[in-house]
Specification:
The chain has 211 residues and is an alpha/beta fold. It has one domain: tt1808, chain A, CATH 3.90.1570.30. The chain has five helices and nine strands, in the order E-H-E-H-H-E-E-E-H-E-E-E-E-H. Strands 1, 2, 3, 4, 5, 6, 7, 8 and 9 form a nine-stranded mixed sheet that branches. Strand 7 and strand 8 form a beta hairpin. Helix 2 runs antiparallel to helix 3. The longest helix has 17 residues. The model has no long low-confidence stretch (mean pLDDT 90).
Length: 211
């Protein structure tokens, strides 16, 4: 009999034990988040300033629910990143199941937002309410990323609660590895949405360049 576990209850330890998942020690494994080769226009910066201002104002009346985070913060970022246009496609509430071999366990959940290029997964996005620490969602996001049917392709993830943003990269081959970016926060004096959008643009640009 197969035991089904909600992805929200999976721990990082379980993923490491079941998939042999390890955190990459090579700093070049996830260089996509730290590269500084994407510039933003003045219009893009102005729009991101408005997004930050809107979020901070809504934070004055907590809690800011998950759907509000998607509408106020995530939707503008995906738009500015170009993900609403071909060759990209957006899916929401995508069901995914990850089976633990020889253990009779199935991890099942729904990806909040999935960005695809053709049929290839590009970006798994997990959105949480504003009072939820993004670090708590790392095992859940990684479980979804390990469910990528294209196991020879790296998968990228982004976790956000509207205020904080964390990017992930995971691979299956030649071994199961993952790494994370630094934590971006709107509570910092500068507008860290600039850096978030730059990473999104790099991921989209590399996907197009790689065909």
């Amino acid at each position: 009999m197969v035991q089904t576990i909600p992805a929200t209850e999976v721990t990082l330890g379980e993923l490491k034990q079941s998939f042999g998942l390890r955190q990459a020690q090579d700093l070049t494994f996830f260089s996509e988040w730290s590269e500084d080769n994407t510039t933003l226009s003045e219009a893009e910066r102005h729009l991101l300033d408005r997004v930050k201002a809107n979020f901070l104002e809504l934070m004055e009346d907590p809690p800011m629910l998950e759907n509000s985070v998607k509408m106020v913060v995530l939707a503008p970022l995906l738009d500015l990143g170009g993900f609403y246009h071909k060759p990209f496609r957006i899916e929401t509430e995508t069901s995914v199941g990850v089976e633990l071999e020889d253990e009779g366990v199935l991890i099942r959940g729904r990806i909040d937002v999935l960005v695809l290029k053709n049929r290839l997964w590009l970006l798994v996005i997990e959105s949480k309410r504003s009072d939820f620490a993004v670090t708590r969602a790392i095992p859940q996001a990684l479980a979804y990323m390990l469910g990528n049917p294209e196991m020879n392709q790296p998968t990228f993830g982004m976790i956000t609660n509207g205020n904080e943003f964390l990017f992930l990269k995971a691979t299956h081959q030649p071994r199961a590895e993952y790494a994370n970016s630094r934590l971006f926060s709107l509570l910092n004096p500068s507008n860290e949405l600039y850096g978030v959008l730059q990473i999104l643009k790099r991921l989209g640009g590399e996907a197009i360049a790689n065909g």
